[in-house]
Amino acid sequence: MANRDISEKELKLTAAVYATNQWVVDTVRETGKLPETIPTGGLHIAANVIIRKRGEDITLSEDEQVVFEAILREGRLPGGSVVLVSEFMKRNNLAKDT
Question: What is 39-67 written as a DSSP string?
Fold first, then answer.
């Protein structure tokens, strides 16, 4: 997370994506920590499905909240993160003034 700014929306979406893998949720519940690595195969599809169904500004489920809190505690994203183009544009002052 230190390599770039990441918005709360992106962190919540990332937690939701991680929580689609029950192993990640179970690991966080059992150890209080995220796994060292999270396999990324298919996570981009999970992100797309979550955004299409729930939008970009989501309310987290209980499992997602547990993962979100672990991300905040540890300050790391072992499976990468969701990047929203709109948030990226704002961060980098690339948004067109209208």
Answer: --TTHHHHHHHHHHHH-SSPPP-HHHHHH
User: Which run of H or E residues covers position 90?
Assistant: helix 85-91
Alpha carbons 24 and 29: distance in angstroms, whole number: 9
> Could you read off the pLDDT of 53-97 as tens digits, one per residue?
999 999 999 999 999 999 999 999 999 999 998 887 777 877 665
Residue with tokens 């990332």: 14
Say if CB 77 and CB 10 are below 8 A apart. Answer: no
Q: For residues 73 and 82, what is the distance between their CA atoms, to the nearest angstrom?
A: 18
